[in-house]
Amino acid sequence: MSAVKVSLLQTTLHWQDSKANLAHFSQLLAGLPVTDLVVLPEMFTTGFSMQSAEIAEQEPGPGLAWLTAQAKAINAAITGSLAVKTAAGGYVNRLYFVTPDGAVSYYDKKHLFRMAGEHQAYQAGQQRVIVRWRGLRFCLQVCYDLRFPVFSRNLNDYDVLIYVANWPAARRHAWSSLLVARAIENQAFVLAVNRIGQDGNDIHYSGDSVVIDYQGQLAASLSKGEAGVLSANLDGSALAQYRQAFPAHLDADRFRLD
Asked: What is the pTM (predicted TM-score) of this model?
């Protein structure tokens, strides 16, 4: 199994300005070295806004069209979340995963951050989603999902956990600690991208984007507040060998919580 190159984009976001954000990310992607997967922050077109009726796009909308075009242009998969108004009229925080051939998968954020009123502005998703790409299986998660380990529990059905976030700097210790825990307990790579800067609610974000290997070791990281691209190679063969030599998942407790 060949290695999969991933690229995480840590940057500030223009508050509730989709056109400005899409233009910004277009510039970043234009100069990006060859990669297999690009990971963008949570609500990358607007920032983490609870003004769902104002910022959400219809499905399919311009944000998805942009993801589809960019994936084809750089011949890589792209994942990132945005506010979407569903055909039924509800609003969701939707994490899209788009591949160069135009295939679209998505996960609607299940755990909504009630401390910011997200549970009042958006509807919760019900199921986790796993996507296959370049020989690896990716489990899609969004920000606050990180605090709920049962939801991300690996049943030997994925290889990589993706977290896209707008995680405030005030709780950066929790962010860093929980990411390592998720990697170790699930014997999976963790890709975690967070924004930087200040949003329209005067909340500060430190970034701290990381790639963590299946043993909880830091494979790559960006410094606090640093804008840039974080790249790493995920070796699926090494992961398979480690799981075979240390098959902790075979001794996992059998339970399920809803």
From this structure: 0.97
Percent helix, strand, coil in the chain, to 5, is: 30, 30, 40
Per-residue pLDDT tens over the stretch 72-111: 999 999 999 999 999 999 999 999 999 999 999 999 999 9
How many Å is the Cα radius of gyration of the chain? 17
Burial of 246 (0-12, 13-18, 19+ CB in 10 A): exposed
Tokens of 32: 């990006």
- Strand, helix or coil for residue 78: strand
pLDDT in tens, 10-24: 999 999 999 999 999
At residue 159, φ and ψ (nearest 5 deg) are: -115, -25
CATH class of this structure's domain 4-246: alpha beta
Task: Mark 203-216 as b/e (b = at least 16 C-beta within 10 Å).
Answer: eebbbbbbbbbbee
Q: Determine the straight-line distance between the first and last CA of the chain, rounded to whole angstroms.
A: 35
Report the candidate in 144, 129, 136, 133 with the shortest Cα–Cα distance to residue 214: 136
Closest alpha carbon to 133 in 201, 76, 66: 76
Question: In 3D, which of 224, 244, 228 has the Cα closest to residue 236?
Answer: 244
Please list the active-site residues.
Answer: 42, 109, 143
> What residues does each domain of the chain span?
4-246
